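Homework-ish question, so no full write-ups if that breaks the rules, but can someone show me the predicted structure for this set?
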Amino acid sequence: MRTTKRFFTRNEFYLVIIIVMYSIIVAIKNPAFLSFENFFDLLRAASGKLLLALGVLVVLISGGIDVSFTAIAIFGGYASARLMLATGIDSLAFAFLVSVAIGFILGAINALIIHFFRLPTLIATLGTSSVFFGLMTILVGTKSINAGQMPSSIINFGSARLFEAVAPSGNTYGLSAFIIPVVIAIFVTWFILYRTLLGRGIFALGNSEESAKRVGFNLFLIRFFVYTYVGLLAGIMGVVYVAEVRWVNPVSLVGTELSIIAAAVIGGAKLTGGEGTILGTILGITIIQLLYSTLVFLGLSSSWNDLFVGVILLISVSITSYQQRLKSRRNLTFSD
Amino acid sequence: MGVYQYMQEILITEGLSKSYGGVHALKDFNFAVKPGEIHCLVGENGSGKSTFVKIVVGAISPDRGEIILNGHRYPRLSPIQAIHEGIQVIYQDLSLFPHLSVAENIAINRLIAQGRRWVDQREIKNTAEEQLTKIGISLDLSLPVEELSTANKQIVAICRALSLDAKLLFMDEPTTALTKVEVDRLLSIVMELKQKGLSVVFISHKLNEVFEVADIITILRDGRKVGDFKPQDLDYKTLTFHMTGRKVEYPRYQRQIEDNTPLLEVKNLSRKGNFENISFQLYPGDVIGLIGLLGSGRTELALSLFGLNPPDSGQIYVKGQPVKIDSPFIARRFGIGLLPEDRQTKGLFLKKSVEENISVTLLEKIVSKLGVIRKKIKRLYSIQATEKMRIVVPDVETTVQNLSGGNQQKTIFARWAMTDPSIFILDSPTVGVDVGSKAEIYELIQSFAAKGVGIILITDEMPELIANCNKALVLRNGQVVAELSEKDLSSPDVSGRIQLLMSTNGNNRHSRKREEV
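A: Not a homework solution, just the prediction itself:
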């Protein structure tokens, strides 16, 4: 009884309503929207974003923020593709290995800087974001790799499907293999957050750093995990991204981090830390991806995208902030 | 006697010292706790109690001295070592995780101490349930802790400590935010824990509670130990004498001004859930005390007068004119100043200089016609203010966070004093201030009042109220339950009377719906 009641007061409930209502509007305008083909396309396009957003969720729960993950992702994706071309090793596993290793190292750098210099996480990662990006352009270069040059293992990964069907139009479509890393990442993130003490420590740290220290959590280990985990997911996403777009321009991706953070926040993660759910994050990404891909169905240009994302973000944040204010009013903090 | 000789002390400290920026927070402190003992630690704010607790739990390391826990010597401790030795603390702020569930808040300590990797929600629930039954209380385990009353949060904190088979429990001012009934329940839990062989170090300002539970009382003053006493060898007077190091007799304020046109008049002021039907008049030279427990509505009322917590109904008159105060900006225009309760978070710019902190309310006075700040005048005002308020600083460019509590408080006092407020609201002006500065702040309050300023003084401390106020309103559950005149305040039994008025058990606002005691 109580759990059902609680669900209706939860953020996720409203997000589901928004998604359903929006989908209905789009479907009325353009029935083509309601096809499996389109659904699988959406899923494929959202995969990379969701990988990043899961990392963002973990950072936000820990009470921090990371804006360097897009730089890490493109670093990993671009460097692994370049390395494959240079060495001639045409293997998807190699690509993931290189990209994930880069993600891990760069994430570790973030963690060390944040922990030992006690920097605000936003400032630290804003700095490292530029550093990572600069490092990549110096070490790896800035030349883009087009589809013709791209190693075939990556191209194949991008077009791999778990199963296929034929649309009435004669096109074949199917479930992209991207779903595999995504499902694994969702499961691993869930398991860590809810089934390990480390995960509870991430929540505890975000709730109150002082209290977490007092009960005996090792804050360094927690932070180290959080930022390397983001790096790791960004590394995976780097390869997925390169496979998705089939060519890579090293200046792409950087600059989209705020929309990913927005998705996690729309999903109920708080910038103040200690709160956030995987389901919410998935719904947040769903909303962002829906807007991104379906404005054309509504006959709107993609420039409307930012506007809608912004409006939804503001509304969801305002609601939570207002609820927070009511709560703190009861505790006699008057911040307005 | 016999048994004790063979029983090992749980905790012994030898020559513990810690100083901050040349100031001794704790000096050569020797302390010992035996099994099953309730050891009370008393001392004024700043006497070193919290520094001591922080050292023993491993939050900070001492400059000198050793800690011996169950026979093991530690020159410094880590929090995990302290936990393994059976030390648990219930902090004044309770240190809970507001968004996590009751069950998890209780069980998390044990999981960490056992070095667990994986968590099992069912086990967490069982652990929590087990601890709650130990003290005979039931709570909704899945509720986030932020939704509990203060008293129940305290229960969660106690259960958390118990979940680890604590041998020694530190309780830092555990009763501050509780109603009388809740305090009684807590004290009986403490006595029960003692019966089960647990030792408790009980830190409290409320001396009646200390006498009620203590087996032994250790008194701290200015970072040094005054001595260990048996409760039967002390009474209220000797105890305060040892705590303060002198017979504290603050001069009593007497209103001299004869002008009886009210500066501020409040009629039937109400705000739902905060306070109801508050009416009083503040005359020039009045120091009205507002006293009541946390949640009695006193701070809420003060904030309403300063425009931070707009009332729902009722009327405020300033100098006879009906006014609506809905922001601090407006309040200032009517000559109202507020010294906030928590100077560090709500008042001071900690990282700025004394000069910046003082001059911030004086901007109109120190800017030129073009709106540019005239630095010389700013400096001049600040220096004047530090002299007037006797703020002890090398120069006005000193950063505020490096000052002692007393000087910090005087700085923020100076900020408002320089604006010549006609109505001055002081919320707990001497919290965390040493005795010397306290006397100076009282002197300041009284000299303001003597000049015709109307003062509203919110305080927890009875001697503070009695020394400074010529009127007092006692609040309980958002209502004025008594208005005390100068004559009432000068009667010798007034402290006891106020205590009774504040805490008389009635339909108090801390809900205890969820528990079945």
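Now go work out the reasoning yourself. Hint: The first strand of chain A starts at residue 161 and ends at 166.
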